[in-house]
Amino acid sequence: MPLRYLNGFDIDKLKKETCDVIVIGSGVAGLYSAINLDRDLKVLIISKETLAENNSYLAQGGIAAAVAEGDMPEYHFEDTIKAGAGACDEAAVKVLVQQAPRDIEMLCSIGTNFDRNPDGTLTTTREGGHRRFRIVHALGDATGREVFDSLLRECKKRSNISILENCFAVDIVSDPKGCKGLIVKIEGEYRYIASKALILASGGVGQVYKNTTNAAVITGDGMAMAYRAGAELTNMEFVQFHPTAMYSTAAYENKFLISEAVRGEGGILRNTEGKRFMPEYHEMAEVAPRDIVARAIFTEMRKTGSPFVYLDVTHKDPEFIKTRFPNIYKHCLKEGIDITKEYIPVCPVQHYFMGGIRTDLWGQTNIKGLYACGEAANTGVHGANRLASNSLLEGLVYGRRCAEKINSTVAEVNLEQPEIQYKRENISAADTSGIRESIKNLMNDHAGIERNGKDMSMALRKVNEYIALLEKDSLDSPEDMETLNIAYIASLILKGAIRRKTSIGSHYRID
Ligand code: SIN
């Protein structure tokens, strides 16, 4: 059992605020849920750092939705189920694909500037696992940034929505009747925010791994605090590795993504001997589902002894590359590679998390008043392997549904202040330095693309030792609290992966 709360507190003694709904997270799921909440509800959005520090902002490829002529939600359904390797919740996928066009329309109505064809229709592209062109995108390869900017503009227009930046969410406060509010740390002091409902849209777990595309803030805090509060976390072994992050030896906190849309537009994967290899692995070649491409690259890297393979777009019109992928083009140029003339070195890294806080079709968790959406949630739509560009989509559809459920039920909820005092005696000031790096390395080496029980058990023993050490310590700084959150999530991923003996989707066992 984890600690119930990271720190001791007495609610009576904390500075207090109240609101109707707290939203933790400023990515697409959080902002979109906020604008779908009724305007007479007092809504507070909490962001750990500045608002744009989130994974949605980094999203390049786009949003999957059956909006192009000839496409249908039924086809989108089939591709999602197939990519999910038989582990998707069909009812949840149906909701996702059927409601996708309506949320794209809503974004257009608030001014999201999606890329368009000369006739005004939305431009669509293709990515791994999609049998049709159905990914809408913006600014070429900066869809997340455009959607985030438009949602934030909309939030700022609403007088019922306030935003707290640089605010660390420490713990969900609950009693047997449900979720009551949140303890945060802001400007060095702890505060208690009471609310009638709480939406966790705090993102995934990328920083549990050494190599990830995820923003530096993505340390699994929301999932870890839900776990401490008794929420059900499921499918924790399903971690997605994106096939093509740019290979670089620079010590960035996250790896630069080379969008799957680059392959969707004809990019070819070659090993370091220059040989195209994907047709040997799957009939859909470079646009096969993500887990298959990631494993194929991993195999080729092992065969050639190289830490990367190449992505080749040199056969494409240079002007097309520069306008369709302006940010990728500029970033690679900065790293010394002109992608219109040279191959891009790429390798798979952690990118997305399919597991998370179990919810129903309305984002409700097993704790009354606690909702989850976006990457923090496990709605069941992704199964064992998420279909490309279904992530922003899930954030939209299920973020809105959380809001709709709260709108229709919140009037029955009274704002109550629980009388909770939580004591922690064990202040031992252990030396926690180096623990975070060690866990990230363990996860990289033993809970990656290929897994085996013996190594994972060894990693779990080590992570459990770190948890024991951290639980003894006084965790006053957000960095130390993040490290314990990382440790809890790492242990849950390892436990899930050890328990699941057979390979499925992203979970690939070699023993
Ligand atoms: C990408 O652009 O390849 C990422 C899209 C996604 O994660 O679905």
Summed up:
This protein is α/β, with parallel strands linked by helices.
Structure description:
The protein is an alpha/beta fold and 511 residues long. It folds into 3 domains: 9-238 and 354-412, 3-Layer(bba) Sandwich (FAD/NAD(P)-binding domain), CATH 3.50.50; 242-350, Succinate dehydrogenase/fumarate reductase flavoprotein, catalytic domain (Flavocytochrome C3, Chain A, domain 1), CATH 3.90.700.10; 427-499, Up-down Bundle (Methane Monooxygenase Hydroxylase, Chain G, domain 1), CATH 1.20.58.100. It is built from 14 helices and 21 strands. A 5-stranded parallel beta sheet has the order 8-4-3-12-19, with helices on one face. The protein has a 4-stranded mixed beta sheet with strand order 2-11-10-9. Strand 10 (178-186) and strand 11 form a beta hairpin. Helix 6 (221-228) packs across helix 14 (478-499) and helix 12 packs parallel to helix 14 (478-499). The longest helix has 22 residues, at 478-499. The two termini are 29 Å apart. The structure holds succinic acid. The site of succinic acid has 10 residues, from helix 7.
